[in-house]
Amino acid sequence: MISIRVCTGEGELLAEAKHEREALLRVDREYRDGDRIEIVSDCRHLMVQMDATLLPGEVYLPGGRMTWRVPAGEHRLAYCPVAFAGGRHIVTARAMTAEECAARRNLACNPSDLRGDTDFFPHCTANVETRGESCFAARNVIDGMRHNDYHGEWPFQSWGIGAREDAWCLLDFGREVRVDEMALTLRADFPHDAYWVGGHVVLSDGSDIEYTLRKSGERQFIPLNGPHTVRWMRLERMRKSDDPSAFPALTEWEVFGRDL
């Protein structure tokens, strides 16, 4: 059974939908600050779409529950300008099939990821986000969007490091998965942007893999010399190019593999 509920910040129920395999919810009300969406499911692997403007994506619910704060205020700058706006909204959630869970795919992609603590995965965090602004938040690198020839508000959201040399970004899958390759898409608003010539990715199984990058807006595929069984991965020790710009940034981080 899958249940979707939309509640106010005070807990008042606004809308609800239930279904054995695929719940489809319509909300006829303008969202307000504090509103939240709650999904409860017997299935841990779901395909969800939290707004008509968001890409559908896979989430893993270790506790069978997903609590999703509707982005408000400055947090909306990383989303389409009409996201969460208006008096009618949709939310969908369906159970993934065994074949989908067994397939090789991008295990990192989660357009529904939020800043801060979450009870659903994958989830990205970092030790720095430029000026604390949502359009430079770590969650942007797994939102499924690779538009990267500019910087700032949607669709050019990215992970910005505020010129920190010790920046790191952590991707938590919420469970152990089997991974063999990753791809990085650098933000390529040259000459505003610099770029990284390389770095390291540390895996939860103890592996430390060094990689190189080139000045390009294309996806750059990096073999992980695996496969590896991991719970999390961390990008760190990234080396900036000698460009005069102080602003390298990451647009998308993809990790390819399978569920165990």
In short, what is this structure?
This protein is mostly beta strands. It has one helix at residues 98-102; strands at residues 2-7, 13-19, 22-27, 36-41, 45-49, 57-60, 65-69, 89-95, 105-106, 123-126, 159-160, 169-186, 196-203, 208-212, 219-240, 249-259.
Topology, pairings included?
Layout: E1 2-7, E2 13-19, E3 22-27, E4 36-41, E5 45-49, E6 57-60, E7 65-69, E8 89-95, H1 98-102, E9 105-106, E10 123-126, E11 159-160, E12 169-186, E13 196-203, E14 208-212, E15 219-240, E16 249-259
Number of strands: 16
The end-to-end span amounts to 23 Å
Order of helices and strands: EEEEEEEEHEEEEEEEE
Discrete helix count: 1
Rg, rounded, reads 18 Å
Please report which band the strand proportion falls in: under 5%, 5-15%, 15-25%, 25-35%, 35-45% or over 45%: over 45%
Query: Outline, from the CA principal axes?
Result: globular
- Helical residues, percent: under 10%
Low-confidence stretches: none
> Mind summarizing the main beta sheet?
8 strands, antiparallel
Q: Could you say which structural class the secondary elements and strand pairing correspond to?
A: mainly beta
What would the average pLDDT be, to the nearest integer? 96
